[in-house]
Amino acid sequence: MEIRWLEDFRALARTRHFSRAADEQNITQPTFSRRIKMLEEEMGVMLIDRETLPLSLTPAGKLFLEASEKITRLLKETKDGCLELERAEAEKLRFATNQTLYLSFFQGWLDSLETDIELGVNLKATSWVGRQLIQALEHGECDLILCYWSPVIDFLQPLETYEYQHLVLASETLMPVTALDRSGEPKFLLPGSKKTPLPYINYNDQTFIRQVLESHFRKNTLQMPNLLNINENSQAISVKAMIAQGYGVGWLPSRLLSSGGDQGLVAAGDESWQFPLQIRLYRSRNNSHSKMAELWTQVEKSVKQQTVSL
After folding, report:
1. The CATH classification of domain 3-90, taken from the options 1.20.1250.20, 3.30.365.10, 2.60.40.10, 1.10.10.10
2. Half-sphere exposure of residue 176, counting CA atoms within 13 Å on the CB side?
3. Fold for domain 93-309?
4. pLDDT of 213-224, one tens digit each?
5. pLDDT-derived band of residue 262, with 50, 70 and 90 as boundaries?
């Protein structure tokens, strides 16, 4: 059964005349009559008494008219509701970030803005590696990305052009951590030795953190860590879980340790093994979303206030 058949039937019930009802539906009378006949065949009963002038509804037709009016009203209300949801979604700024920043930074930062602008957070993005976030912004799949930044992260270079803008929201520190041994002492301590390298819980090569760590290791030739790569992950939360189970040493953003509980993890080295990062918000200058300029202004204001308070 087609929805337009219900509309045809309601038009015929109003006009009680095939020609006038066909004109209302903007179709020819033969086409209209054929659709009414198909409706009756679908229902298995006669809905129109064609022997009366003007036409009248059979008892089954009267019952069907009530049902068709309810169905039509319900369909209209549902359609209006769907359109309203779509409009509401279109007003949201599409936001993407990785799992670590979503868990350790995003909500607190958003609350501090005190904005009524809704962000449509893409939770699928929390499983993406760094390059995928950059590509999503380049291809217009999101309006904003929140990510780590360091000058050594090569896949961030496309966002360093005039086409894109960024704001530095906060600083972050990568900290080497380890679980405790049975005596309550750090299980692994940097730098380790060539003879007994430390088991290392690493990040895969598509992540922000992997590039930062490798760059610092290369630069610090006087104090190279002796590490044996035993595992690679794309998410810091997975690295954290492996370290907490005592499988090895690894680096974690300090906010992830403080916001998610340290799980008994302790420093695996002194401050010389800690490496800085920035947390940045990026957007395209060509983004025409109606709420973008307002949100960007609010974020700029928030950043300036934080700078003054420091």
Report:
1. 1.10.10.10
2. 25
3. D-Maltodextrin-Binding Protein; domain 2 (3.40.190)
4. 999 988 876 678
5. low
Per-residue pLDDT band for 260 (boundaries 50, 70, 90) equals low
Beta 164-178 vs 266-267: how paired, if at all?
Answer: antiparallel
pTM confidence score: 0.74
Note the pLDDT of residue 212: 93
CB distance 133 to 97 below 8 Å: yes
Paired tokens of 269: 């080295």
CA distances from 278 to 169, 173, 218, 219 (A): 8, 8, 20, 19
Segments making up each domain of the chain, as ranges: 3-90, 93-309
Alpha helices (H) in 139-244, listed in sequence order: 208-219, 236-244
Sign of CA dihedral 219, 225, 230, 233: negative
Residue length of the chain: 310
Structure token pair of residue 88: 């509401």
Confidence of residue 18 (pLDDT cuts 50, 70, 90): very high
